[in-house]
Each structure stands twice: as C-alpha cells, then as structure tokens.
Amino acid sequence: MSHVDLAFTQEQLELRRTVRDFLDKTSPETEVRRLMETPAGYDPAAWHQLAAEIGVAGLALPEEYGGAGYGFAELAIVLEEAGRALLCAPVLSTVVLAASTLLALDDDLARADYLPGIADGTTVAALALTEAGGPQDEPDALAVTAARHARGWTVSGTKPSVLDGQTASLLLVAARSGAGLSVFAVAGDAPGVRREPRATLDQTRRQADLVFEAAPARLLGEEGAAWPALRHVLDLAAVAIALEQVGGAGRVLDMAVDYARTRVQFGKPIGSFQAIKHKLADLHLAVESARSAAYYGGWAAAASPPELPLAASLAKASAGDAYVTAATENIQIHGGIGFTWEHPAHLYLKRAHSSRQLFGNPAYHRQRLAGHLLAAHD
C-alpha cells in the first residue's frame, strides 16, 4: 500500500470555505424544499454560478478542455459539502459520472467536443449505465443494444433510474454491440429518446427511465472496449457517493448535538443524560470512521488507481451504513418534532437511504471488498 496523506492544503481548505459559503446562501432548507417541487429538480442559474463562476464543474478537468486542471482530491471537497447541504444540482451525474467517462475513454475528439460544455456549466450530462440488478460486474448482462447502419449507429432498449436523465442534454449510454460493450453519445432531444421521470423516495435527486428506440448515437472510443473505463467510473461513483454521505452524516450529527444541548427536560439539557451521551458518542465514532474511509477513497481516486477498487468498496460500505444510522438516530434524539414534515431531518433520512442503494449497497461492496482482500493474499 502506498503512503496515504489525507491532510488538506491551505488552498483546499479555502476551496471548502468558498463552496460552503456559497451553498449556505444558495442551498438553504427552504430552497431545497422549493426545488423538490420543480420539474427539473435544480436551479439552472444557481448551477451555472456554482459550475462556471466558482468553477466546480471543471475543477478536475484538464485545462485544455476548459477545466482548472486539479484532481479528484479537490472534487472530493465539493462532494462532501454538497452532501452536507443536500444540494439539488447535477454534480454527481455530470461532473463525476459523465465527465469521468469521457476522460476514461480513449477518444480525444469526444473530449474536445463535450468536456468544455461540462466545464462551463452549459452541458448537463448523464451516464446511462446500470440496468435492473444494480452494479454490473458482468458487462454481458446489459440488455441495451447498439446497431450500425449506413448512416451511423443507433441504440435501443431501456435504462432505468438514470440520475438527472430527464434534464440532461447529453446522454452517455452503455450498450452492447457485436464487439462487446461500448459507450455511445446520444442527444437528449434526439428522435427515438423517451424520458419518463421516476418517483423516488429521495425527492432531492432526480431520476428518470430512459427508453431508446433506434435513437441516433455516436460511438465513443473503440467499439467493444469500454468495460475497463466503465468499471473505473463505477469505482469513482462509489467514492463520490461516499463523500456525499459523510457530508450528510456530519450534518445530521451536528443537528443532533445542537438539539441535545438546547432541548431541556426535567430542568436539564437532554445532552446531559447518559443515554443521549452514549448515543452521540457512538454516532461520532461511526461518522468519523466513515469519513476516514471516504477520504481514503478520494485519495485513491486521485493518487493511487491500483488501490481504488478496494478503497471504493470500503468507502461506500462504511459511509452508507454510517449515514443511515446517523440520520435515523438524529430523528430519535429530536423526538416528536423529528418526525414532522416541517423538520429537515426526514430529508436527510431519505437521502441516506436512497444513496445507500446507488451503485451498490453495503452488502454488495463488502462482498466485493472481501474478494479483493482474498485475491491479495493468494
């Protein structure tokens, strides 16, 4: 294992302060609730500010494509802050999944065509990868197919639960062709594309079922050679969600601690009761352990790709359980008020449960982690 340095530089700390200040102003609870009721699920003007003016969308993109030339370590900070604020914006879909796919595929022309739009916030992109059954460790299991015609490629089939699939102008679709698994670019408004918004438990993150009926497509990279790139993107996705999760878990832990300090029963703050003290101590340990695992995943994504598969599964398993536990206990500590629609606790609980399932639940990632560890000892 390589040397792991999880300390942040002064520049990275300043990035965190900048992003947190921006999200405190633009993503308060009232705005999150408003956006939950809108068709798009996010504010395009606020997204453009975050993406272009603060530079979040191009943070980890090379300068030649309009990015800032930083890496996943800086993006990790943004993801944690986004999770803390329950940010309603296409960060995960566009900045992590789609941009990482374009970078991982061997297609310089596609990068030049698509990445500048992502970097300046004008392109919202989505990756249509997984199908029924969750993470695809067997690429042959994908049912969406691609066919070559005289005028080019088309894709056909259904991709369920695509993050921001209902608003993305660029769809990156994983499909099987005669040579194997490939990735295709499809315009969101192309003929043969039907988008069906999906009702979800977590209203702060939009998903849609995408139906392709011989939709015109552009092959990205080499035909049949996409699986190594997509497997890498799935690992990045697991790390990204874990970072979001520890941001949210830290926020609900802070909510619980603040309430325990101020809520008085029997003439004392409830935080002085031993049962509450023990509960909060256990939560603090769980959240900080998960944060360490998520930071390790972020470090591996930035500095040590060989360790990324193991680090990604460790991070996703740890953070998924910690967030659900913290969000649940936060409601318990708040008592009756924590169960009401007016209190933000339920928003975090729903995000915790939904993100726990995205790109593999903790059981899946523990099994995968065990496989990596056994292989390392052989």
Automatic annotation (TrEMBL):
Cofactor: FAD
InterPro entries, sorted: Acyl-CoA_Oxase/DH_mid-dom (IPR006091), Acyl-CoA_Oxase/DH_mid-dom_sf (IPR046373), AcylCo_DH-like_C (IPR036250), AcylCo_DH/oxidase_C (IPR009075), AcylCoA_DH/ox_N (IPR013786), AcylCoA_DH/ox_N_sf (IPR037069), AcylCoA_DH/oxidase_NM_dom_sf (IPR009100)
Protein name (record): Acyl-CoA dehydrogenase domain-containing protein
Keywords attached to this entry: FAD, Flavoprotein, Oxidoreductase
Gene Ontology molecular functions: acyl-CoA dehydrogenase activity; flavin adenine dinucleotide binding
Domain Acyl-CoA dehydrogenase/oxidase N-terminal intervals: 9-121
Keyword Ubl conjugation recorded: no
Domain Acyl-CoA dehydrogenase/oxidase C-terminal: start-end pairs: 227-373
Domain of life per record: Bacteria
Domain Acyl-CoA oxidase/dehydrogenase middle: 126-200
Family of this protein: Belongs to the acyl-CoA dehydrogenase family.
